[in-house]
Amino acid sequence: MADKDPDHQKPQENSPHGMEPYDLGGNGDLGALSKEQQEKLNKYKIKTRIENEKYLREHPEVECLVSGFLQYVNKHFTDPDLPTDVERKLEARQQKIRQNRFLQKMVLLAPGWKAAHSNLIP
C-alpha cells in the first residue's frame, strides 16, 4: 500500500555528484526505488566512490595507463583518415585469411607434401 505522505514518495537528498538522477515516479508511483532503498543506494554509491578514490591514490600507475589511453584516443580518433585506415587494415587482414585458407587446402591436397614438410607443421 502506498504511503500518502508526499515526502515519503521522493528522496530528500540529491543524488551523489556525478551519479545518475533518481527515478522519482509520479502520482501514486514511488518510482524505481522506495525512499529506504534510495537512501541505501546513496550510501553504497558514496562508499564505492570513496573506495575508488583510495584505490586510485594508492595506484598511480592507473593514472599513467588512463593518460596513455586518452592520448592514443585523442591522436587516432580525431584523425580524419581513420575510417579509410581501418577499412584498409581490415581488408588486408581478410586477404591474409583467404591466403591462409588457400594454403591449408593446398597442403591437404598435395600428396606427400605434408610428410616431406612435417617439421614445418605443428
TrEMBL record:
Q: Where is this region: Disordered?
A: 1-36
Locate the compositionally biased regions of type Basic and acidic residues. 1-11
Protein name, as recorded: RIAD1-like protein
Top-level division of the source organism's lineage: Eukaryota
